[in-house]
Amino acid sequence: MRLPKGSKGSLHQLWKKSLRKSISIGELISSLLAQAKIYSTEGTIEAIEEDPDDNMFLSGALYAGAEYIVSGDKHLLNLGFYSGIKIFSPREFLDEIMTERT
Fold first, then answer.
1. What is the overall mean pLDDT for the chain?
2. Residue 43 and residue 36: Cα distance in Å, rounded?
3. Of 34, 36, 60, 85, which sits with the fewest C-beta atoms within 10 Å of its C-beta?
């Protein structure tokens, strides 16, 4: 899944609304999904040996030209970056969009 470039600003606004209880977390997720594009790729990447199934997320992110990956997966998080793509935990991502706009 990929959000359009510049989406972090609108994500910041949505997150602030959810904190004020103007929208629910479900509405926040629905909004994210409405903006996202789903990609499929057959490319092979072998960056994560411990759990090869995680490589499909890296491949999809590269194919889509993603700026970042948001995941709770420890193998992805241990990479931190991959080919210029920043890998965030959900908490780190929320912190990032909050500090970026303040």
1. 78
2. 21
3. 34
